[in-house]
Write a structure and sequence with these properties.
This protein has 159 residues and is mainly alpha-helical. It contains six helices and three strands; from the N terminus they run ααββααβαα.
């Protein structure tokens, strides 16, 4: 592993010294070689139209006790809640939502948890400019969210 890191590090230094030379060659080839240029433009067009070749599934199933629970990745959850992934992580850091119940290092959320986050987002949108009212309403919604966070996955409540 150390050898691989050392070779990667030395390659990066070597490439940094020769980057301009390589880019100049690529630009020259792009200007001169019509077939190469059309191939690159075609690949870029396909990528724009189709998107990435592989996209991870929006949801998966996790075994909780003796039943399977449908859980959504944080990016799909953020889309459904109408917030960014960073906002959801920030909510978790501030204690607005509990940490993800599944301790495997990935943030995944159940349908019920997404609904609770949507209600939090509505309160934040409604009282965005009234700080005192926002705090009061947010406390109520967050308390409800904490009370019902593990509905349907009670087995994870104690972990």
């Amino acid at each position: 592993m150390a050898d691989q890191r050392a070779s990667t590090k030395s390659y990066r230094r070597w490439y940094a010294r020769h980057r301009e030379e390589f880019n100049a060659k690529r630009r020259a080839r792009y200007r001169q070689d019509k077939e190469y240029r059309s191939k690159l433009l075609k690949a870029a067009k396909e990528y724009r139209e189709e998107g990435a070749k592989y996209t991870a599934p929006e949801y998966t199933y996790r075994l909780v006790g003796d039943k399977e629970v449908k859980v959504y990745r944080i990016s799909a959850t953020a889309d459904r809640v109408g917030r960014s992934v960073f906002a959801l992580r920030d909510w978790e850091a501030k204690g607005i939502i509990p940490p993800s119940a599944f301790g495997d290092g990935h943030r995944v959320y159940t349908e019920n948890q997404i609904k609770l986050m949507q209600s939090i987002a509505k309160v934040v949108d409604k009282y965005r400019y009234n700080e005192r009212r926002l705090r009061g309403e947010l406390e109520k919604v967050v308390e409800r969210a904490y009370d019902h966070w593990y509905d349907g996955i009670e087995e994870l409540r104690d972990e």
